[in-house]
Design a protein that fits this description.
By secondary structure, this protein is α/β, with parallel strands linked by helices. The chain has 23 helices and 25 strands. Helix 15 crosses helix 16 and helix 15 packs parallel to helix 17. It is globular and about 65 Å long.
Length: about 650
Amino acid sequence: MDGVALKVSDLSVSFDHDEGHFKAISNLNFTLYHGQTLALVGESGCGKSLTALALMQLLPLHAYLCAPSQVELAGVDVLKLPEVALRRIRGKRIAMIFQEPMTALNPVMTIGDQMMEVLRWHKLTPRREQAQKCIELLQRVGMSEPQLRLTQYPHQLSGGMKQRVMIAIALAGEPDVLIADEPTTALDVTIQAHLLKLLKELSIERKMALLLITHDLGVVRQMADTVAVMYAGEMVELAPVETFFTKARHPYSQGLFQAIPSLDKRGEYLAMIPGQVPKLGEWPAGCRFAARCPHAWEECKKHPSLYQKEDSVTVRCQLYRDDDPNIQTDFNGTVVKHAKSEQTSSPLLEVEDWKVYFYTRGIIKRKAIKACDGINLTIPRGETLAIVGESGCGKTTLGRSLLKLIDHETGRICYQGRDISALKTQDLSKHMQIIFQDPASALNPRWTVHDLLAEGLRAQGVSKLDARKKTTALLEQVGLSRDMGDRYAHTFSGGQRQRLSIARALAVEPELIICDEPTSALDVSVQAQILNVLKKLQAELGLSFLFISHDISVVAYLADTIAVMYLGKIVEYGPTEEIINAPKHPYTQALLAAVPDVKKVLPFVEKYIQGEQPSPVNPPQGCHFHPRCPHAFEACIQAYPDMFAAGKNHCASCYLLQSS
């Protein structure tokens, strides 16, 4: 094993509050080694992101470090350094990829200025070479048209593009230690695979230590050397990655595995860990997981120590105090078969030849950016249609334009057989709602949670008292405490804010909900709870969902039909089982091949899709995918292919199907 890069000893963080001092992180101990990756996993609100901020000395207001906390970087305790010295270290010796790029990027600075700021501050590159260095960094993280991106502002980029900019900024200083807080949350699977491969290569080449904070256990399996599980501010399990995935000890760790969605679980509700992480200041004196654990016993009233087991495993559980029992925690008691709504025959929403164009600036000639180009799809009542594809392919634009949040060029929308193409957003909101991709920017920071959830209800004339009752029930429905209603959005973790966004969409009881990455910021246990809520509402109310996601496991579990988008067009469309098990379009095949597998470690390939995604300003002639397709031939270059049948209700836009 390589030398120590960062050693964390007895790290504790507390918050000052009107009611006293609350410890949010308790005596955390771990070591990062050069060229090694430590994955930090756990539910939202367990203290993972706060741990990262503590290491960077970027704690929020009213938070402070408690003695005897120690963080040694190359033998120097950074917690004792003055702010001036810390500024020389941050970005160069130790860097961080923040969880929410929309709030981490400066909205009034171009991407180029923000990237060059790091190079200028640490004097890493001569001024005349800084622009080229930024272009190279953007190219390395898989960004198309890097020269153009340098001149753009954050709001002009998709969520996945902003995340790649954050990764490029963090890598600019060539740090010894990189803290990656959910670095691939907003990314599609091909870009995720590319960036994970890049981080793994840099970790080995530069002997860079990587602290990877993620809720995606598939990513953990592919990337980590060691896994640390956090719960309620303390570490409950630390194990080598192979041992963790073959024999997780702690009941909480086992519960996380059982909550993972998959195609095999489509007909049932997902297993869930009952309850939720206890609130700050209400942690029990004994085992903090005892209230949710089916193995809890009398000894759990005492606070457990970390017990060292064989194969370099450390576990905080009274069950392992004396020996190493072969415990298999079963959270399946809440699993029941999902009864599909019978109202699934008639189409709820039909979209015909839907086009959304944006135009480049220009006095004489403007170029059209065809974000959505001739989209045709049908969403039956009580069913889920999933839209998947790479970042920037038009998924989010499609969803927002259907709700009239973006103007469309041409096309027709029929809702329950009625043409609603000319209706305005306010006329559609009673029937259609949206869950936005970025909860931090979608929630008004000046409103309490009750006000946020009640906005749609009050607009429909619901009384203040009835709206209050409804919003309280909604909080519990999405797994939040009912007394959180008087708090503000900024006081919640990323996953909790996403749950607030889901609750707000559910408030007016719409018939169709457009879900734009609704579970992307959620850990697997909370994700299971939200997916179960969506399934239950769909079964009881006949709700329909347009589900936009890059998480193939979630799509496989929830969706009835999948539409694959590439550069503004649907390239494959069909039943979920057929798309997942027998994809026909080469692009779909590449997407599925890039999905990380929680069951086994897959070798990183050079690229799942060759080349970069072309710009929508200048899409290739013929099939848009042909420059990147290993099967392309002459016909693919001449004209765009029609949709060819690949089975019952299954079709793909590929000449290979015509020839077969």
